[in-house]
Amino acid sequence: MLGRILEVACLLIPLVYLSIKDLRERTIPNVSILAIILIHAAHVMVRSLVNGVPPGQALQELFFLLIQAVVVGAAFLLFTLIMDYVLGKESAGGGDIKLFAVTAFCLGWRRCIVAVMLACVFGVIFFGIRWVLARCANKKAQDDIAAYPEGSFAWGPWIALALCLLMVLGD
How many CB atoms are located within 10 Å of the residue 88 CB? Predict the structure, then answer.
């Protein structure tokens, strides 16, 4: 449990960074994605050493997680391409796809599905509150809210929040 909390604490740095970057600029930096992968891989290796698990078994676990991440990333890319075609505009960016893949790397594909649902719920709540505030707020607040591209949705912060929540809650 302590190891999991320590991992989440370490993950907060790249997750907060990418969340702020995504909210402000609608981009998710690759360096954050790489940091998350490295932190989780280090956690898996250290956990295996502490628990007396052979390094080969830990590497096998990482390989299996990597396969899951690739499959989830490919599935999400396919879904995104279909939605882009149906909607006639971009539905999710490459950073979102990579972040979902990394979420699968950290949580496994089953819990990644839960993370997708949670990210949607968190995003809808945030943008619902933002919409209400835009209707009730003063002119400056309305201008700040209007500065975001019409119809854009920053997935990053909500994926990051779902990832942290599911990691803290454990299996």
Answer: 8
